[in-house]
Write a structure and sequence with these properties.
The chain is α+β, with helices and mostly antiparallel strands and 153 residues long. The protein has one domain. It is 43% helix and 12% strand. The chain is globular.
């Protein structure tokens, strides 16, 4: 069984009520953000899924989003509950950061206070230049064994 199949078939992951962070699985910058969030998520509120995964395609497809377009990061909060909400771009980023601990939380709180058009412009600048500035991996990042339980494929 491949590592991706192992992750997809992990019966220990209960998605109900979780916040799921969907990121570009080949983006070097995004990989760094995910690792920083895993370290900062002291309350274990998030699971992570690459936009290129089968799970992301199905979960985001319910909202009419084609995840493989790689246009934005997304968060589904309260997954599979009546309170489920989809967010993308700056609002999704702020949602994640404000739930972290330490410096990431401070960044999220600061960003949230900016006017929305400023937030959107800053997000778009990073999103549009992420491969040129930070690089692109040849294949989807597969997490190390010690953090694999935080990922859904």
């Amino acid at each position: 069984m491949s590592i991706v199949e192992e992750i997809k078939n992990n019966p220990d992951i209960d998605l109900t009520g979780k916040n799921i962070f969907f990121y570009d699985g080949v983006c070097v910058y995004c990989k760094g953000i995910v690792h920083a969030c895993i370290d900062g998520d002291k309350d274990n509120q998030f699971l992570y899924s690459p936009l290129q995964s089968e799970f992301a395609q199905k979960a985001l497809g319910r909202f009419g989003v084609k995840s493989t377009d790689l246009l934005s990061m997304y968060v589904i909060s309260n997954y599979n509950t009546s309170d489920e909400i989809l967010m993308n771009a700056a609002p999704a980023s702020n949602f994640v950061l404000k739930r972290m601990h330490g410096e990431l939380k401070e960044i999220g709180e600061t960003n949230s206070k900016k006017p929305r058009d400023v937030q959107d412009a800053e997000y778009k600048e990073v999103a549009d230049t992420r491969y040129e500035k930070f690089g692109k991996m040849e294949s989807i990042y597969i997490p190390e064994a010690e953090i694999r339980s935080k990922f859904v494929f």
